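Records of this kind hold a single protein each, on a pair of labelled lines. With that in mind, the following record should read easily:
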Amino acid sequence: MRINQKTTMNSLIFTLVAVALYEVKAETNAVAFSAGLSKNLQLAHTEIVVYDRVFTNVGSGYDSNTGKFRCPTSGVYVFQFHSVANQDKTIWTELWHNGYYICSMYGHTSGDYASGGNSAVLRLTKGDEVYVKAVDAVNGAATNMYGASDEVYSTFSGYMVAPVYEEFPSVVG
């Protein structure tokens, strides 16, 4: 059997173009961010935690000036937040979506460092905001987040696991 070189070449070109278009589409829909805290942070009031060291920000959803993730593409997202508190201090933060409480993380250990973390899967609409806030000290203790330029222990990350191609109202609760 003789192989037609022109047919083989056209098939190869078609395959390469299809793969390139798929990769471009996948890349333009990708959303992921990860940011950390490169300094100690003491929060006595309900404040949004601003993670200052951005490790990745595919889709440009995380704003290191405000600490908020603003959803660039509707979809299903996973969010994780973790932290370490200095010795004899407390870490108490919460994940919020468009002004609604989602979940908490708490840690305290006498005579040692404390750590905590939590995660949630949320369905977001383009423009929704997700962020981490400290719990007000009147509810227990001030939030202490340990960090240094060469020791990043407090992080906030999120990524889209599936796009949603229909617009839908945000439902929380």
